[in-house]
Every structure is written in structure tokens, then in C-alpha cells.
Amino acid sequence: MEIKSIEEYHEMSLVASKMIIDRVKKYPNIKLGLATGGTPEGTYQQLIKDYHENRTSYQGITTFNLDEYIGLAEEDSNSYHYYMDNHLFDHIDINKENTFIPKGDNLNPAEECERYELLLQEKGGVDLQILGIGSNGHIGFNEPGSSFKSRTHLVELTPATREANARFFPSIEDVPKQAITMGIATIMKSKEILLLISGDSKKEAVKRLLSGKVSEDFPASILNQHPNVTILIDQAAAGSMGTYPMLLMK
Ligand code: PGA
User: Fold this and answer.
1) Of 116, 131, 126, 121, which Cα lies nearest the Cα of 223?
2) Which atom of ligand 1 is nearest the CA belonging to 138?
3) Angle at 218 between CA 161 and CA 38, to 5 degrees
4) Could you say which DSSP state residue 147 is in?
5) How far apart are CA 13 and CA 211, in angstroms?
6) Which is the closest atom of ligand 1 to the Cα of 161?
């Protein structure tokens, strides 16, 4: 686990985008796992900026998103399909046929989960997975208590997650109650993981993650067992841990 403590969010986004651009240049057919939410927005902005300035090409890459809300169609402005188009795909030369996100409006979510998991396997899995973290330790929408053996599955969102995401919706009642998410075992199969943690609402999560204790009560803790993880933590999220030597050494 390589942990980089970074002064502030903008710089974190720059470091993350550089790492992604480096991999895309080296491996033009790379399969990227993508995350949504507030944290990766700055990284996607930097990828777009670089695309305009340096024309890094995304034509050969394939992407898989971590999750999608149940009940939202692709064109719904709160769907993660919409988010990805809006925050990244519409602004670079990616081939949209090679971008995959679970379909939240499939009337048979169990079938959709199976289809998505199989698709990931058929395509050979994710090379570099970008992750955020919930303040409750969720990765993707794998809430506390999710099995470490889980594959793509249907989840009930916790009240804490719905409250955290209500800022993107007109009101909390509009936040879906369920989602499809890659499972923890699915995420752990990625060859490399880049975890971005920003803001003081993530302070407790950072402490628990870096304690090294691995438990299904705190899903992100499993990342301690992945062989190739980089974690970027901004100062607000690191809090007082930012000064601990362990943060730099681990
Ligand atoms: P955030 O969400 O980036 O909006 O904080 C992260 C997550 O819930 O995984």
C-alpha cells in the first residue's frame, strides 16, 4: 500500500490524473474502473484539460463503472450514466461502445448483476480501478457488512449513504434506496487500485483504514490485503494523522 499525503484537493486531482494519463499512454488498451461522486470530479476535469492540451487519446480504452442507482434511466440527470457523460466521456475521444455501467433501469436487477459480472470477466477484468470511500467505509456501494466474497450485486443503501448523496438530488426522498454495485471480490480482482480520499468528513474513515484492521464492518479495510494500492489523502481527510510517520511509511 503506497500512501501519499497531499496538501489539498486540487493537487490530489492533478496527481491522480497524471497517474491515469501515464497508464493510458503506456497501455492504450487499458481497462479502467471508474468511480462517481464528488471526489473524482477534479481528476476527470484534469483528464479533460490534458486532452485539450496534449490530445492524450482514450480511443482504445475500455471502462467499467463501479455502480449505478436502481430505477434511474441512463438519461436521468442523477444517474451515473449521465454523470460519466457529463464529467468525462463527452469531453474526450473515448469510444462510448467501450464504456460499461450497470443498467439501473433493467427490470430484472438480479439478471443485470449477473450480466455485468460476466461482462467484466469476458473482457478480462479491470487493470486500474479508481475508488472513492464513503465516510462509513463503503467502496462502490458495498455498505458495512458486505461480504468480502461478493460479486456484482443488488444493495440496499444505508440511511448514511442516502443522506451523504442527497446533495445531488432535489430532496432526500428522491435518492434511490437501492443500487447495483461491483462486489468487493470484483473490486479486489483489479490489478491496481487508486483510492482518493478528500475532505474532513472522511477523517474517521482514514483512521480506520490505516489502522490496518480488516473487517467486513468497514469494507475499505480489505484494501490492506490488495498487492497494488495507491492512496491519495488530502490534508483535510488526513486530519491529525497527516503528521503521523505511519502515514508516510505504511
Ligand atoms: P464522494 O463519495 O466522493 O461523493 O464523497 C465517495 C463514495 O461514497 O464512495
Assistant:
1) 131
2) 9
3) 40
4) -
5) 25
6) 8
Strand 178-181 vs strand 67-69: parallel, antiparallel, or unpaired? antiparallel
Task: Note if 52 is an active site residue.
Answer: no
247 pLDDT higher than 70: no
Q: What per-residue confidence (pLDDT) applies to 245?
A: 43
Residue partners of 101: CB distance under 8 A and separation at least 6:
64, 65, 68, 80, 81, 84
Question: Cα 141 to the chain's mean position, in Å?
Answer: 9
Residue 136 in contact with ligand 1 by CB distance below 6 A: no
* Residue 92 three-state SS: coil
Residue 131 CA to ligand 1 centre (angstroms)? 9
- Asked whether 147 and 111 are in contact (CB, 8 A), the reply is no
What is the rounded distance in angstroms from the CA atom of residue 205 to the CA atom of residue 203? Answer: 5
Kindly state if the Cβ of 133 falls inside 6 Å of ligand 1.
yes
Check: pTM over 0.85? Answer yes or no.
yes
Mean pLDDT, to the nearest integer, of 114-120?
A: 98
